[in-house]
Write a structure and sequence with these properties.
The complex is a heterodimer of chains A (260) and B (362).
Chain A (H helix, E strand, L loop, with lengths): L1 H46 L5 H8 L7 E14 L1 H7 L2 H21 L3 E6 L2 E6 L8 H25 L6 E17 L4 E6 L1 H12 L7 E4 H5 L5 E5 L14 E7 L5
Parallel strand pairs in A: 4-6
Antiparallel strand pairs in A: 1-3, 1-4, 2-3, 4-5, 6-8, 7-8
Chain B lengths: L19 H11 L4 H5 L4 H5 L15 H14 L3 H13 L4 H8 L9 H15 L6 H9 L4 H22 L6 H6 L3 H17 L18 H6 L4 H15 L5 H15 L2 H13 L4 H10 L7 H12 L5 H9 L7 H27 L1
The chains are: A alpha+beta (260), B mainly alpha (362).
């Protein structure tokens, strides 16, 4: 009887211990699941700042096939002038610091005017306006951004000079047109980008700044939809590599108005 | 703990202020005065507008639970920590478990949610995001699941009303911490069964009632008429009338905010109506065209010149960015103008989204 009671008590205790353990195990798993879920949500939020939200959902849903969309976009292409000489004269660590300071300031100017930096290419950068969501004011935004970049570069140059470092100069090309916006890349690495002639023209227009007396050039397509208060000086049409027709460009000299 | 706590949030641009008359009105309608009302008292119609919040006597087709879930998903979509925290607390009070709320936030309920609920929540999310706005295909998808036209209109109204409340709370960066903690407060947990029953006992469904001819006229009359017979139509009429009748900002300034938001969202019907009102207020077609193309014009009054560019930022945003831009208006507007701008831009976002859906149906 006693042995049977002890055995029953032992079995009962064992069941209780197992039950408690399984409960605490399930609580632990629940907490871990919640933590993982919170991390996923955080990641989704961060991802949505780099890629349009609808694409984030489609990627999460496993739909990689239909991730391109035709959009009217304004592309701003900026490149440092004389960077090769600079890279030879500065120490690597100083060069990287100078370059990062430059990119920081340029990005701030672009984001302030509702643009997104799509990619950094060596000493150049490519920014998009209207690629994430339709933006009827993209020409004005891009030109205001370009002017703000000029202002930021001026301020940065004063800092560099105070440190005894060489001044930086840049060339900026701005063009508006249709492009395909989507996730582009290989299976291993995808990035949100706009592809099409609109990007090539912006890059070529940027390279024109080397041969004319202007640091910021915009095409007719940008000027036609831009605020008339932008001071745009007409330049002679120029032949650009890879383009069949000469491109009409305008040097951006300033903005005649209060608020940007 | 709210799932939006990592969202960057700016410093609050408003001070709460009590107004006994407004409080009496809101309490009579809702049984309680939501915190947001105290921040909006310098512009009475904005403070009074919170009575829509719980849909008392407003819904005919949509059950209160679904309306609350729409509140969660739209607030999550809009990253509105204030509304989201408040809505979580409300769900907890109504007996929805923390686990279930978390599942909903994480979109894990695919298998457990009724397909109609799932579709309704997806639709609400798309309406809030507006990138692009829901179109005919979205409405057909709802129709295939058995949603009738009036039911869809009401659902769109519920989602649009959350678009409104999200902006009302986010633009001035109302402090979210209190509402975020509310759901986990021991007192709320303890009193939830009683509070939940009390709250439910006050909630009554609305009744269909044809609109009067007067209600079909006035600003955005065609939109209100499209909600015909639904109690939502009368609520929207009252809100629009009060908003446009308020003397704080000019009617022209309000019409311009509506037109800019409509342009940014690509809602043609809404832009046409806002433009009509602006023209009635003395703005010529070319002048209006310049304002909408460039968000600026020499013909704009100083207050208009300040609010028009910020109106476009209220369409889609990161909270901390739009809060910074909104706070920049404090130097250029009086406190009541600032609150009215918050109210009118929130209303414009709700109305334009709603009209785009009703237009797609037509």
């Amino acid at each position: 009887m006693t042995i049977a009671a002890i055995a029953a008590f032992g079995a009962l205790s064992l069941v209780l211990v197992l039950l408690r353990r399984s409960r605490s195990e399930s609580r632990r798993l629940g907490a871990r699941l919640e933590e993982a879920l919170a991390n996923l949500q955080r990641l989704e939020g961060i991802f949505a700042r780099m890629v349009p939200h609808e694409l984030v959902e489609r990627v999460i849903g496993g739909d990689h096939a239909t991730l391109g969309q035709k959009r009217e976009v304004t592309v701003l292409f900026a490149d440092l002038v004389g960077f090769t000489g600079l890279s030879e004269s500065l120490e690597a660590s100083v060069l990287v610091r100078v370059l990062n300071g430059y990119f920081d300031r340029m990005t701030r100017a672009i984001v302030e005017h509702r643009g997104r930096v799509s990619t950094f290419l060596g000493d150049g950068l490519l920014a998009l306006f209207g690629a994430f969501e339709p933006n009827p004011w993209q020409s004005d935004d891009a030109l205001h951004a370009a002017l703000a970049m000029r202002g930021e570069l001026g301020a940065y140059n004063r800092e560099l000079e105070a440190e005894g470092l060489p001044r930086l100069g840049f060339g900026v090309g701005v063009h508006r047109g249709m492009g395909v916006a989507g996730l582009v890349g290989s299976h291993e690495r995808l990035e949100f980008a706009v592809v099409g002639g609109v990007v090539n023209v912006a890059a070529r227009v940027q390279s024109l700044t080397r041969s004319c007396d202007a640091d910021i050039l915009a095409t007719r397509e940008v000027r036609e939809l831009a605020d008339s208060r932008f001071l745009l000086r007409e330049l002679p049409p120029a032949e650009l590599r890879g383009l069949s027709r000469p491109v009409q460009t305008f040097a951006l000299e300033g903005f005649q108005g209060g608020d940007a | 703990v709210s799932g939006l706590q990592d969202v960057e949030w700016g410093e609050c641009a408003l001070e709460p202020r009590r107004d006994p008359e407004i409080e009496r009105y809101v309490r009579r309608e809702l049984g309680l005065v939501p915190l947001v009302a105290h921040y909006m008292t310098s512009c009475p119609w904005v403070a009074r507008s919170v009575v829509i919040h719980q849909y008392n006597a407003l819904l005919v087709h949509t059950d209160f639970r679904l309306a609350d879930l729409v509140g969660i998903v739209v607030s999550q979509e809009g990253s509105c920590r204030f509304c989201y925290g408040a809505q979580r607390a409300l769900l907890r009070i109504q007996g929805v478990s923390e686990e279930r709320i978390r599942q909903l936030e994480g979109d894990l309920l695919d298998a457990e949610l009724d397909p109609r609920e799932r579709a309704a929540l997806d639709f609400a999310k798309r309406l809030a995001r507006a990138s692009p706005l829901p179109g005919r295909a979205d409405l057909e998808a709802l129709s295939r699941l058995g949603f009738g036209p009036a039911e869809v209109r009401e659902l769109a109204f519920v989602a649009a009303s959350w678009v409104y409340f999200n902006r009302l709370s986010t633009l001035p960066a109302l402090p979210p911490e209190r509402t975020e903690r509310l759901a986990d407060h021991w007192l709320v947990r303890l009193a939830a069964p009683v509070l939940g029953r009390l709250l439910r006992s006050r909630m009554r469904p609305g009744r269909r009632e044809p609109l009067s001819p007067e209600a079909r006229s006035g600003p955005y009359g065609s939109l209100v008429a499209a909600l015909d017979a639904l109690p939502a139509a009368r609520a929207l009429r009252r809100l629009l009338d009060e908003a446009f009748a308020s003397p704080v900002l000019s009617v022209r300034a309000k019409a311009l905010v509506f037109a800019v938001v409509a342009r940014g969202l690509g809602c043609a019907a809404s832009e046409a109506e806002a433009s009509r009102i602006a023209r009635e207020q003395g703005l010529s077609e070319p002048e209006l065209d310049t304002v909408l193309r460039h968000l600026a014009s020499p013909v704009l009054q100083p207050v208009e010149a300040a609010i028009v560019p910020v109106a476009r930022d209220t369409i889609r945003y990161r909270p901390v960015e739009v809060q910074r831009r909104a706070r920049g208006l404090l130097d250029r507007l009086s406190p009541d103008e600032f609150v009215e701008f918050i109210g009118i831009s929130s209303l414009a976002n709700a109305v334009c989204r709603l009209w785009a859906v009703l237009e797609a149906r037509a």
